[in-house]
UniProtKB/TrEMBL annotation:
Domain Formyl transferase C-terminal: 204-314
GO molecular function, one term: methionyl-tRNA formyltransferase activity
GO cellular component, one term: cytosol
InterPro entries: Fmt (IPR005794), Formyl_trans_C (IPR005793), Formyl_transf_N (IPR002376), Formyl_transf_N_sf (IPR036477), Formyl_transferase-like_C_sf (IPR011034), GART_AS (IPR001555), Met-tRNA-FMT_C (IPR044135), Met-tRNA-FMT_N (IPR041711)
PROSITE patterns according to UniProt: GART (PS00373)
Annotated family: Belongs to the Fmt family.
NCBIfam families on file: fmt (TIGR00460)
The protein's role, per its UniProt record: Attaches a formyl group to the free amino group of methionyl-tRNA(fMet). The formyl group appears to play a dual role in the initiator identity of N-formylmethionyl-tRNA by promoting its recognition by IF2 and preventing the misappropriation of this tRNA by the elongation apparatus.
Species: Candidatus Acetatifactor stercoripullorum
Catalytic activity: L-methionyl-tRNA(fMet) + (6R)-10-formyltetrahydrofolate = N-formyl-L-methionyl-tRNA(fMet) + (6S)-5,6,7,8-tetrahydrofolate + H(+)
This protein's name: Methionyl-tRNA formyltransferase
Residues covered by the Formyl transferase N-terminal domain: 1-180
Amino acid sequence: MKIVFMGTPDFAAQALEALIEAGHEVAAVVTQPDKPRGRSGELKFSPVKECALRHGIFVFQPERIKRPEAVETLKSFAADIFIVAAYGQILSQEILDMPQFGCVNIHASLLPKYRGASPIQHAIIRGEKTTGITIMQMDAGVDTGDMLYQRELPISHEDTFETLHDKLKVLGGEAVVQALDLLEKGELFPKKQAEEESSYAPLIDKKMGCIDFGKSACEIDRLIRGMTPWPSAYTFYHGKQLKIWKAIPKGPDGAFQGSDSASREPGGAAYAPGEIVKVEKDHISVATGQGFLEVYELQLEGKKRMQARDFLLGVRMKPGERLGQE
């Protein structure tokens, strides 16, 4: 089967590598134009382009994939199928209909949940226990096409966006290779998405990382993990932004709180949300709307990211002080 692969970031590069290793014919790779990097303005290749060049595959980088000249170039590849993974441009209906087997997308969620641009982050933030990869037939909607193949993956209570992303990019490569094998055998059968079960994962905005200590410790922990390493979860301390990189949610009894309990007990009647309750050698404990947040890694505005034990050598936090006031 002759493939044109469309993708840009390392999530997509992993899938491209898997297809090449499996022996599939990749006629061309389509990726976003090179971007200038740093102060020097040196052009930076996308991870997908770097992968393609290593394997001697032709790279096509149109500014706008819908332009007539770009469409004609795509036609010239005479591909049987287009495989898309985080490409970064919307395909026209003409392109979707071009190959014999259409365009197939590698999406990092178990559709119909978390359609959209940031399914990995939202799965963590909203407390999902599992996620996965969906290989889907693309249509004119946003991740609304028929599902062809799925693989599940558990989400651990320690997973951040970074760690879960890296697990899913490997799974995405495995899944697309398996799906193509089934397609070639005629054993891949489309399944409609249940619209009533759908949810949307919009683009992540930096403002979404602002911590509301009125929420539970468990909810705040999920926000921190979902926002790590970008754009990060943050609060304020004496008017300066304070990023929180690693924390452990504890219930009112001090035990680890893996999920919100049925009872909505506050962190403690004597404490306001955001109030520093304890300052230990290696962490600080902060009151929340339910339970306490033990903070182990943080970063004050203008400083580097560091462990709490090192942070506290230079910043004299005290019980009774409060986080969250800009």
